[in-house]
């Protein structure tokens, strides 16, 4: 029996339909496998990134917690611990209008507490080279020191990542602004300069001999001497200070050097050896700067090819002391007093630490008029730093260790954390 064309076409369609249906799953599966593998790879990579992020976050917070834990015992000292909210309110939220300046520690702000007391707040910057060790060092040291020629620390603040020191506010700020700034001619007469020299000497004498601790400041310079409303000097910034815990030990040899090049004693700058005589050397440099009104820094070295202290020695030796004195004084000073300060300054910057006087002897030299002073020897000859920039306005800060040496041409001290 012959089938009709219609029925024949229908049967062919029925025979091919199962084959086509059976081929669909295979085709879909071959396209879906790469997609599933790609999704799985992306998930695995994201999971790995998340795990790495969590690990680094925990590690970073563990370091922060360790730093904060080391700072917790501050509450056991006599120093008040202040709230962050109180300091923020006093400084108007750390506003630009309240900012006094910025140093190696971080920015400094002026503030007014509820009772009307003025304060200066040093806020540790996240980019600061100084860390928890220096912060703690300054808090523990200065809280135990009380002297009219040392800056008074009123409190501190430790709140999460914030670390701040709260000082008495000194309206005339630092000595370098008067010595090397535009205000010196109008304010720093001879009597004021002599008073500042004697005040700094008394403050150092207290640190070395009269306090409950034997302390070497290690960073005495014009910018670390603050002036109150009566122009009384106060030594500040004890972040680098070192305590001589054993009274029998007079000299410490350290592998690291911190401080400011123009004020550093040669045995410390070259060999890492420091003692109270290192501070005496820095004091001598400061005295010569106060007398001359010039900074013993890179600019002076660039212009004269030798240091300020070498010029001071040459003029003293050639009996030209008057030429060394600051021209803004216009000769208005008591020569006997000025020459005694000059002489004492040269004795302090002698190369050999054994030849330098103690601070008790220095104070007697400055306030006495009967003592015969020994003849000073020539100060050290420091090599000129390579390529000292002409634009430098300050002393070269230097940090060195057994493997490297770094120079900075600003007024900021470079600090390295080290055990004692």
From TrEMBL:
<keyword id="KW-0472">Membrane</keyword>
<keyword id="KW-0067">ATP-binding</keyword>
<keyword id="KW-0732">Signal</keyword>
<keyword id="KW-0547">Nucleotide-binding</keyword>
<keyword id="KW-0325">Glycoprotein</keyword>
<keyword id="KW-0723">Serine/threonine-protein kinase</keyword>
<dbReference type="InterPro" id="IPR000719">
    <property type="entry name" value="Prot_kinase_dom"/>
</dbReference>
<dbReference type="InterPro" id="IPR011009">
    <property type="entry name" value="Kinase-like_dom_sf"/>
</dbReference>
<dbReference type="Pfam" id="PF07714">
    <property type="entry name" value="PK_Tyr_Ser-Thr"/>
</dbReference>
<feature type="region of interest" description="Disordered">
    <location>
        <begin position="376"/>
        <end position="420"/>
    </location>
</feature>
<feature type="domain" description="Protein kinase">
    <location>
        <begin position="94"/>
        <end position="373"/>
    </location>
</feature>
<keyword id="KW-1015">Disulfide bond</keyword>
<keyword id="KW-0812">Transmembrane</keyword>
<dbReference type="InterPro" id="IPR001245">
    <property type="entry name" value="Ser-Thr/Tyr_kinase_cat_dom"/>
</dbReference>
<feature type="transmembrane region" description="Helical">
    <location>
        <begin position="35"/>
        <end position="55"/>
    </location>
</feature>
<dbReference type="GO" id="GO:0005524">
    <property type="term" value="F:ATP binding"/>
</dbReference>
<feature type="compositionally biased region" description="Polar residues">
    <location>
        <begin position="391"/>
        <end position="420"/>
    </location>
</feature>
<dbReference type="InterPro" id="IPR008271">
    <property type="entry name" value="Ser/Thr_kinase_AS"/>
</dbReference>
<keyword id="KW-0418">Kinase</keyword>
<keyword id="KW-0808">Transferase</keyword>
<dbReference type="GO" id="GO:0004674">
    <property type="term" value="F:protein serine/threonine kinase activity"/>
</dbReference>
<dbReference type="GO" id="GO:0005886">
    <property type="term" value="C:plasma membrane"/>
</dbReference>
<keyword id="KW-1133">Transmembrane helix</keyword>
<protein>
    <recommendedName>
        <fullName>non-specific serine/threonine protein kinase</fullName>
        <ecNumber>2.7.11.1</ecNumber>
    </recommendedName>
</protein>
